Structures
1.
Amino acid sequence: MGTDPKEECGSASGVSLKQFNSISPIGSGDASAVPVKTIESAVDFYTTVLGFLLISKDQTSAVLKRDEVQIRLIAKADHDPAQAGAFYLDVVDLEALRDEH
């Protein structure tokens, strides 16, 4: 008898439990130094859309965490999103994550 994955991640009870397992760069990305145009808008996206918690923030960087995943955003005025690295977020249950928001 196996455990229902929906119960493990909390979607069956409506409680948000562990969803994010890991983050992996696609290409030359680095989760410890993710370039962003502005810290405020990036923090807003990661906290509002993806449910990350803000751990620390200053004028030029922010650290966010959710479950097993931690990222550090770095403000770069000349940042070009079209040239940015990409990341793969490994999640437990995509449907449950989508239902959170």
Note: The CA atoms of residues 7 and 21 lie 16 Å apart.
2.
Amino acid sequence: MDYSRVGADLQVIVSVRVRPSARSGLLELGRRLADEQGVLNVFFVAGAFDFLVHAVAPDTEGIREFVALNLSGNADIESTQTSLVFEHILGGGAGI
């Protein structure tokens, strides 16, 4: 999908680590993150981070605001790491 057609020129994947004290509510936190404006997908993952959040925004200020207010400003979230998406290539190999 061309998100720029709806004014969302930037895509990011934000890796999110949840505080140990908030781990009992991981799935609920993931659902709340999925409801935030600009969020396309939330993946609950194994590894160093708990979630990968795929989001869009119109510009870098929108990304900064999204991360600062919705993620870093959330008391349940310990840390984030943001990666800018240069190109989103859809796979076709699932055969579904």
Note: Residues 3-85 form a domain with the Alpha-Beta Plaits fold (CATH 3.30.70.920).
